[in-house]
Amino acid sequence: MTAVTPEWETRNDELWAAIDDHDPADFRRLIADHAAVLGDDHPVSLFERACAWDSTGHSDKAVPLYDRALALGLEGVRRRRVVIQMASSIRNLGRPAETLALLTEERMRTSDELDDAVVVMSALALADLGREREGLSMVVTAMAAHLPRYQRSTRNYARLLVEPETA
To answer: What is the pTM of this model?
Structure first.
């Protein structure tokens, strides 16, 4: 198994920056060829191939690759990204309860710069499950941290979306 090098990452970034310059099948082939340098069972190779399928409208082909990348020990920010993206793909396949379970576990596992993405994907799954107010509450709570003012009142409004006001 080949190691991921800075040069490999640079080329990978270049390919992704040019996604719109290629038709979907051509783009998937370019990513697959580039990922193959690492080996077919390298977690990063699997992740990048899954992303290419996912980004070109094939969640069904992406999920097994994401799952395999996780099973093989994908690490770092790509590990968090794989959970978010796989959850989104699972939701696209009509399985929002599974999506929500995966993201709930992820929220408890760690916290980083992708926390808001976890919240957004969770809120979409909640909406699919008919729990829109709960999803909106999550998003409003996450947004409160980014506001220059009104954080406290925003968090309270978010809470009141799901909890009855007490006297």
So the answer is: 0.90
Looking at the chain, which residues constitute the CATH 1.25.40.10 domain(s)? 78-161
Q: With respect to CATH, is domain 78-161 assigned 1.25.40.10? A: yes
pLDDT tens figures, 148-160: 999 999 999 999 9
Topology (CATH level 3) of domain 1-74: 1.25.40
- CA 61-14-4 angle, to 5 degrees, is 75
Residue 15 CA to residue 17 CA, distance in Å, equals 5
**Average pLDDT of span 82-94:** 97
| Helix residue ranges per DSSP H, 37-164 | 43-55, 59-71, 76-92, 96-109, 115-128, 132-144, 151-162
